[in-house]
Amino acid sequence: MNFNEIPKSFNSYESGQCLFLLYINFYMKNYVSAFFFLSLIACNGNSTNNGEQDEKPANAPKSLNYSIVATFPHDTGSYTQGLIVYNGGLYEGTGNYGRSKFKQVDLKTGKALKEVALDEKYFGEGLTILRDTVYQLTWREKKVFVYTLKDFKKIREYDVDFQGWGLTTNGRQLIISNGTGDLFFYNPDGFKLERTQTVTEGGTPTFNLNELEYIDGYVYANQYEYPYIFKIDPATGEIVAKADVSSIWEKIKKAMPDKYPTDIVPNGIAYDTASKKIYITGKWWPELYEIRFAQ
Ligand SMILES: [Ca+2]
Fold this sequence. Notes:
Elements: H1 11-27, H2 32-49, E1 62-63, E2 66-73, E3 80-86, E4 89-94, E5 101-105, E6 112-117, E7 124-130, E8 133-138, E9 143-148, E10 154-159, E11 166-169, E12 174-177, E13 182-187, E14 192-198, E15 200-201, E16 204-205, E17 209-215, E18 218-223, E19 228-232, E20 239-244, H3 246-255, E21 266-272, E22 277-282, E23 287-293
Parallel strand pairs: 1-20
Antiparallel strand pairs: 2-23, 3-4, 4-5, 5-6, 7-8, 8-9, 9-10, 11-12, 12-13, 13-14, 15-16, 17-18, 18-19, 19-20, 21-22, 22-23
The structure holds calcium ion.
Calcium ion binds at residues 82-84, 168, 211-213, 269-270.
């Protein structure tokens, strides 16, 4: 999605409010102590609203630890919306009007081997390949494009009634996120909705599910604007584990100081079913990482 449509409950906004209160308090000398402590209470209150609760529910997701195995270059012109590996090849779908593409990428160089540019009126979103057929979502345009993998030729378009965000496949269905906390399971034949699954964290519905990847029976999802990758049980919607990629994201922010932090979000997860390798990247990131989860 585009950062222009940011829900009001985001951390960055709330952190900004806390800093603003502290700034005002600093200059209200007569009331410094009282307001300072009130501000701390307010900030702590926001933390609770963000889900960083003092007491985790019994069914809170486990921490999903990971290590970086290898680092590869990534095209900083790619506003990554979907990342996949299919038959050993790396493919990426990118967004932004006038810059949206579907391309095959050389892992070693980060350069496109083959690509299709979308018309500038479309904002590309999630991407997946099922049975040698490529599916690519669009954002507000509510179109799904279908291409042949062999020659990247567009063979079909479907109209949908939702914003497209993330896309993956369990080998039978297309699994879609649309910026909410729900996953939508579609039959690719005729593009019919078969099931909707609400995703929950500790029993509470989540939100901002974005780029997706199906890995060994679980759906992994980036949470837009947050440093999390969720591991979701698709049968129940429960987030069973959660990885925090803050350290990688902070490194990218430092490397790209001119970019708005909420624009260069983590938003690419790919899985090579043959080699069992997992790759992650983000929008306009200069690097792509092979990572290994600890569990
Ligand atoms: Ca993916």
